[in-house]
Amino acid sequence: MILSTCNRTEVYTFSDYELTRILGWLQHQKTISEQQLRQHIYDYSDEKAIQHILRVASGLDSLVLGEPQILGQLKSALKTSSECKTAGTTLKRLMQHAFLTAKRVRTQTSIGSNPVSVAFAAVNLAKQIFSKLENKSALLIGAGETIELVGKHLRNAGIGKIVIANRSVENATKLAQELDGLGVSLQQISDYLPDADIVISSTAAPIPVIGKGTVEWALKKRKHKPIFMVDIAVPRDIEAEVSELDDVYLYTVDDLQSVIEENMKSRQEAAQQAEVMIAEEVEAFMGWLRAQDKIQLIKNYRKKVSKIQKETLEKATKLLKNGSSPEEALNFLAHTLSNKLAHDATVAMNKAAHSGDHKLLEASDKIFNLSGQAKQTRQKDTQ
Predict the structure, then answer these.
(1) Chain-centroid distance, C-alpha 333
(2) Residues of the chain with CATH 3.30.460.30
(3) Disulfide engineering: 184 pairs with which of 76, 188, 225, 305, CB 3.0-4.6 Å?
(4) Residue 265 scores a pLDDT above 90
(5) Mean pLDDT across 85-94
(6) What is the mean pLDDT of residues 251-264?
């Protein structure tokens, strides 16, 4: 299963694998050198891998502690993996366990009670500047996850109108439909900027998409009604000189940091509680894994017994067909079956007796109930 987000690509496997093969595949897919890739690789297995997955699902390994978005991304990754038939039973079971763990962490701790995402902080500031958003218009630039989250927060806050501008008009329109808004191209920003009370931008553009001159023109058109602007992008989407203009409140990611840090403090304590839960859930899943190993052992034993039974029965039936009496066939069946079933255990116990392996002998006694059988035999002899 492959999980790919804005800041991580993780490959989850339940099998014996070579890390070099996965690295080779990543190098090929992303056209990146092995040296570059090696600087950022982490590799976990067994309990550490399970712990990592549960921490990821619970938001404890996110850039923003406790961020719930990662859980949805994990579910999407599992869905894709299942559709491609690459996720086996154990991996699916682990993911379901991770989802339940994340739910437990979110409901039993306060890790999600104080949102600390950049998107939430931006909308929270907008609510502070404009006490009511019902009659306000927002221009969102970009159509990625951050802008999607900003749009959802704005809609929940009762924003009057949302316009989404993006390089791909198709993507802008698709997101705008989810938010009951309008999708436009980046080239149309100047057409909608004069009506925007709130401008929040997060694109991957290498140069600013909004310049000082464009904002000056928009302010004149709107008769210098204030514009609240937030530039979440790195590098910046809005020219720094825009902050020099009157009637513009321009904030960057750094400016939002104080809002985030305040809420982050309460999440740190919740995270400590969550780590205890993660440890418990790791042990619970390891217990399930160990049980699967034992169940497979039982299945293997029953399969072996069934094979012996089938082979011996075929030989006894053949004796009957060749003219042997039923008594001869039954004697052969009973003798051969008991010998074959007892062979491996007898050899193992014999070796244990000679080598002084008392643990194996005690285990054999329990498995075959030998002491109990001997006790019953003595009682019958006494009677």
Answers:
(1) 55
(2) 2-108+265-286
(3) 188
(4) no
(5) 93
(6) 80
Q: What are the residue numbers of the active site?
A: 6
Model confidence at 31, pLDDT cuts 50, 70, 90, reads: confident
Tell me how crowded residue 212 is: count the other CB atoms within 10 A of its CB. Answer: 17
How does pLDDT run across 132-190, given as a tens digit for each residue?
899 999 999 999 999 999 999 999 999 999 999 999 999 999 999 999 999 999 999 99
pLDDT of residue 373: 60
- Select the CATH number that applies to the domain covering 118-246 from these four: 3.30.70.360, 1.20.1250.20, 3.40.50.720, 3.30.710.10: 3.40.50.720
- Distance between CA 133 and CA 64 in Å, rounded? 26
Maximum Cα–Cα distance across the chain? 113
Q: Pick 2-108+265-286's CATH classification: 3.40.50.880, 3.40.50.2300, 3.90.226.10, 3.30.460.30.
A: 3.30.460.30
Which residues does residue 348 pair with via DSSP β-bridges, in sequence order?
Answer: none
Please answer whether residues 9 and 26 qualify as being in contact, where contact means their C-beta atoms are separated by less than 8 angstroms: yes
Residue 383 has pLDDT above 70, yes or no: no
CA distances from 283 to 20, 97, 101, 279, 320 (A): 29, 12, 12, 6, 56
What distance in Å separates the CA atoms of residue 114 and residue 139, rounded to the nearest whole number? 26
pTM: predicted TM-score of the whole model, two decimal places:
0.54
pLDDT at 244: 95
Judged by DSSP in three states, 231 sits in strand
125, 251 Cβ separation under 8 angstroms: yes
The residues with which 11 forms a beta bridge, in sequence order, are 2
In the chain, CATH 3.40.50.720 covers 118-246
